[in-house]
Request: fold
Amino acid sequence: MVYVITSACAKDELCVDGCPEEAISSGTVTVDGTTYDQFFIDPAKCSDCGSCEATCPETAIFAEDDLESDTKQFKAINAAFFKQ
Ligand code: SF4
Reply:
């Protein structure tokens, strides 16, 4: 399981500083005509520690299994950022 950042991200950087895998990056990606400007978690690096979810002041980060129907797409959006 990996963690996923959604569009509620305000780029606070607490998650970046606390990530032991340096899995979180800032930038933009365009998916299906929408551009997302936020932080993203690299699913190839995330070790499922949960640190980022606990520190995010915006409640923007979720374990992939906890994503709701309106945020499920962010698993693919986070992965797409690292494939571009
Ligand atoms: S769950 Fe842990 S390893 Fe994965 S992105 Fe968050 S802080 Fe980094």
